[in-house]
């Protein structure tokens, strides 16, 4: 009998009592013959293939949250309960080759063992044909699911390391030493293989999950096609498409791992893949999220409703925008880090701070960048103070003095952030006449935890906190939602980007871009720039629209971890090196509080576009080569 070396015991959907497809702990089955002897044991192995999915809803696992520096936390992190120092270190340039942070290659230091995940998928694919008591249709579906998971695990490696080995099948136990010493495959080969796996799988996947009680979270056609779209978009992006920085990235035999010649057909393929994913999502009923207010909240203001349209896209569980939801981790701890203490509840970790510098990315109320709108005082954004008009009570405390930086911004600024004087819409205080306003000056309820439980920039990432979360005094009960790994809005922006790069500006590029903006309460890009920007023609050129789409993506995806990868695939060192800044948060007066402080200035180079391989892995397998400059 052939022994199974690794069969993890992991509970994928453990924290939901009804919406789950795996509420069992797989048996520690000793042999492959036993694992695939019956349908019931084979199904457990299927769920083991799912068990390697990264826990993106966990603050200790989604390193893109802090790595992007959109969210920051004090270093070295002794004040952050439950968060490994390595996660915090990633935001402070402590990546290294001795013990790489979030090592997904080897499965160490916070990283998932993705090659082990792929090996598990291959074992399943090699043996599922042995199971006698399973209908052919169901067998095909399971095979398609595992092929998609295998493709996704390759994608995660591809996104992190670039050229990686393609594991089409497991090496036999009898393989000699040289056969085991695999090499990295060129990025085009990796991308093509992922796409091929999805193409093989898609015909046998369901368009939606029909048995929602037991199967929510399992792979469907829209999920699979979205993974293909992500992959082809990454391969078409500047990081891998005509990047001369990687001219010397070659295998030991001299074979180039990145094609340094630009190929526009990659963008054409990416646009087609995005379009296919969107059409599949639409056919399955997915659409942008708009707040469905409970009957007793129908009287909330238009401004509050618009803020909730935006805020709920992530936190409103199973809403129609969420194409793929990962239910393998609770977001309770995540919300404890992001939620500020206040007069309703006084106990949360409240330690994750929104980077003020990153918040510059939000538009003005006119839907254009703050440095392009002539009606917005960009030069004095950090120094002048203003009084909040009474008619803006749904957004900020009326007649309250605040920084001009916080004034006259788009709805996403107020939906995604909470700061001194900002409205904090929550289930316990939903009334427009009794809204909770957050004071953050030193000595206010938000600072009751002292230096170990407060935002050190003056801003909190409200976007990740459900409005249904409740508390009273020292009690705090997060409304734990499942993490949306793929949102329809993301696919819309990916399509706009790919079409603009492939064909240039036009109705096709504007269509979905404007849909995302409309949900945020903004006019279309052409109209907004014509009426409110110093650069009215910007949306009409490929370069101008590229800049707009990238900024729109950064805004829409802020605090979700995705921009960690977007900045890298765009080769945007200017964004990666944004300083972490904030207000002088330990001050008790408004005038003293609103003094800009620089907390940390990054020093990334193009080395940081890709993660390093561990030195030991290179010693064990001399056929592997290290990523540039590591």
UniProtKB/TrEMBL annotation:
The keyword Transferase does not apply. One of its GO terms (cellular component) is cell outer membrane. The keyword Membrane applies. Residues 99-211 form the SusD-like N-terminal domain. Residues 327-630 form the RagB/SusD domain. InterPro entries: SusD-like_N, SusD_RagB_dom, TPR-like_helical_dom_sf. It is found in: Cell outer membrane. Keywords: Cell outer membrane, Membrane, Signal. Gene3D superfamilies: 1.25.40.390. Belongs to the SusD family. This is Starch-binding associating with outer membrane.
């Amino acid at each position: 009998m052939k022994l199974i070396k690794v069969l993890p015991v992991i509970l994928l959907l453990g924290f939901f009592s009804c919406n789950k497809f795996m509420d069992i702990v797989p048996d520690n089955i000793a042999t492959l013959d036993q694992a695939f002897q019956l349908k019931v044991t084979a199904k457990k192995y299927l769920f083991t293939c799912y068990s390697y999915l990264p826990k993106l809803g966990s603050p200790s696992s989604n390193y893109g949250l802090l790595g992007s520096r959109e969210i920051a936390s004090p270093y070295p992190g002794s004040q952050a309960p439950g968060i490994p120092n390595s996660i915090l270190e990633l935001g402070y340039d402590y990546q290294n080759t001795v013990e790489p942070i979030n090592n997904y290659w080897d499965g160490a230091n916070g990283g998932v063992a993705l090659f082990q995940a792929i090996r598990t998928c291959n074992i399943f694919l090699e043996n599922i044909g042995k199971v006698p008591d399973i209908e052919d249709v169901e067998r095909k579906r399971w095979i398609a699911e595992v092929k998609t998971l295998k493709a996704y695990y390759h994608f995660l490696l591809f996104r992190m390391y670039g050229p990686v080995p393609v594991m089409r099948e497991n090496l036999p136990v009898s393989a000699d030493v040289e056969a085991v010493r695999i090499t990295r495959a060129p990025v085009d080969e990796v991308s093509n293989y992922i796409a091929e796996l999805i193409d093989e799988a898609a015909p046998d996947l369901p368009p939606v999950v029909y048995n929602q009680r037991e199967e929510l979270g399992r792979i469907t056609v829209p999920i699979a096609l979205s993974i293909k779209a992500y992959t082809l978009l990454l391969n078409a992006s500047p990081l891998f498409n005509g990047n001369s920085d990687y001219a010397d990235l070659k295998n030991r035999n001299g074979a180039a791992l990145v094609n340094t010649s630009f190929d526009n057909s990659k963008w054409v393929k990416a646009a087609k893949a995005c379009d296919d994913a969107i059409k599949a999502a639409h056919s399955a009923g997915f659409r942008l999220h708009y707040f469905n207010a409970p009957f007793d909240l129908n009287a909330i203001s238009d401004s509050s409703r618009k803020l909730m349209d935006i805020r709920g896209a992530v936190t409103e569980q199973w809403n129609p925008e969420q194409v793929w939801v990962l239910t393998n981790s609770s977001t309770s701890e995540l919300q404890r880090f992001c939620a500020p203490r206040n007069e309703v509840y006084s106990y949360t970790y409240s330690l994750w701070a929104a980077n003020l510098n990153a918040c510059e990315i939000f538009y003005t109320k006119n839907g254009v960048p703050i440095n392009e709108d002539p009606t917005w005082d960009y030069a004095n954004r950090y120094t002048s103070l203003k009084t909040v008009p009474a008619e803006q009570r749904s957004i900020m405390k009326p007649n309250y003095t605040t920084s001009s930086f916080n004034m006259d911004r788009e709805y996403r600024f107020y939906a995604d952030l909470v700061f001194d004087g900002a409205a904090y819409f929550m289930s316990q205080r939903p009334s427009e006449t009794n809204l909770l306003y957050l004071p953050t000056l030193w000595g206010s309820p938000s600072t009751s935890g002292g230096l170990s439980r407060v935002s050190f920039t003056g801003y909190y990432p409200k976007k990740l906190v459900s409005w249904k979360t409740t508390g009273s005094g020292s009690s705090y009960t997060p409304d734990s939602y499942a993490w949306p790994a793929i949102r329809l809005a993301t696919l819309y922006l990916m399509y706009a980007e790919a079409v603009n790069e492939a064909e240039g500006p036009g109705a096709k590029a504007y269509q979905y871009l404007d849909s995302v903006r409309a949900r945020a309460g903004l006019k279309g890009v052409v109209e907004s720039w014509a009426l409110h920007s110093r650069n009215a023609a910007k949306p009409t050129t490929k370069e101008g629209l590229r800049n707009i789409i990238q900024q729109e993506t950064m805004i829409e995806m802020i605090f979700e971890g995705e921009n960690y990868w977007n900045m890298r695939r765009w080769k945007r060192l200017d964004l990666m090196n944004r300083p972490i800044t904030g207000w002088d948060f330990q001050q008790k007066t408004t005038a003293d509080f609103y003094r800009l402080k620089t907390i940390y200035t990054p020093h990334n180079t193009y080395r940081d576009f890709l993660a390093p391989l561990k030195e030991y892995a290179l010693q064990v397998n001399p056929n592997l080569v290290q990523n540039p400059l590591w």
